[in-house]
Every structure is written in C-alpha cells, then in structure tokens.
Amino acid sequence: MAESDWTPDQPMVSAKDVHKSFGALEVLKGISLDVMKGECICIIGPSGSGKSTFIRCINALNPINSGSILVEGQEVNDPQLDKLELRKKVGMVFQQYNLFPHKTALQNIMMAPIKVLKEDRDEVEQRARHLVKKVRLDGKEDSYPGELSGGQQQRVAIARSLAMRPDVMLFDEVTAALDPETVKEVLLTIRELAEEGMTCILVTHEMGFAREVANHVYFTDRGVIVEHGPPKTFFTEAEDPRTREFLSQIL
Question: What does the alpha-carbon distance between residue 25 and residue 7 come to, in Å, rounded to a whole number?
Fold first, then answer.
C-alpha cells in the first residue's frame, strides 16, 4: 500500500506477527495489534516481556526479524524506509529525558523542527512557546534542564516530541524514573493529549492511568500478547492466569 493510500478508517499502526531477537534471545515472539487514529493504548506486563522493544520497533529504533509493522500504510520493515520521514510521523518519549543540558527548555523544543525539518525559526518559536504552555511550564522557557525537576524535564521532552507535529506518540515508561508527585503532572499531560485525539501508545506501569485513559490494554509476557481488552473488562474479568497473577501483584 502506497503512503497516499492510507485512510483513517484503517489502523494508523498495524503490527502483524512481529518477531525480534537479540542474538539467540527471542524477545518478541509474534506480536500483532492494531491502533486506530485517535486511540490510546497501554501495553503492560512484567519487566523483560518485550514491551519497550516492541514500541522501539514501531519507529525503527529496533529493526524486526520478521513480520510487518505499518504506520499509516508505510512498512517500517522496508529496507528502503526513510527513517526521517517515519520519525516525523511517530514521536517518541523515553524513560530518560535526553534533553541537551546546555540548552534552555525552549531551545530544546525548537531544535528538531529547525535542524531536521528546516522550518522557519520564528514560526517554530511561536509553536514552541505554545507547547510550553500546553505542558504547563509557563515561565520555564529560559530554564536549563538542570534547573527543572524530573517531571518538568519529562514534560519538556514531550513538548519537544510534539514540536515535530507527529501523528502518533510513543511513550516508553516515561514515569518510571519519577517520584510520585511528578508522575501525576506527566500523566495529566499525556491524558490531555489523548483527550485531544492524539494517537498514543504507552508502555506503562501506571494501572490507574491505563484504566481511566486507555481505549485498550494489552498484557504481554515473554514476548507474546497474553490477553487484551478494553480496561472495563480487562481489569475485572481477566481470564488468563498470568494476567490475573500480574494484576494481583500490582493492583
């Protein structure tokens, strides 16, 4: 399917039988899932179950061994793939914020659109200032990362990703390194994005968030999707013993 053939009634992200190994270790053993435009999905599961590896495959940070991942109809596994074009569409926020320490919050947000997209600086600055407000960091434009809390840095990282105007946002355990107070700020920012219709895929341990915000929850264990469903039924009527055991430990 050519890129231009994609229409919003088809999944924005479609993974089919994705396998990924690191050497002899098979991490993903046939993952399939579809995400529609405007959906927010949460992927949960024990450490080492392949969650982070899978979402890193979606924006081609990890090449897959077999299977297919389509983003807006474009095959991520295509050797001819233009990774820059893909990453314009797919924003990603990591557990570590990876901000440039010698640049202010505003400069961090502006860098990629100017350097990568070659956009007009004034236009980018206007957008960046709007994004600072959006993530509720008014007044912190000129602060350096070292002057910000972890939660504030993570919100700068989200704004930086949004500055590229992606169609899909991937969040890889973005609250894992934060203290409980700042977790709330970051989750609120993501919740607002989801409510505005941004397509979001989150790997998370935040079950309350998954329950309230996700359209669909996927539970992975040892490289496979064990069980999935809308949060209403997923959290109360899980059928697989592995899912039930996992939920009993964390809920």
Answer: 37
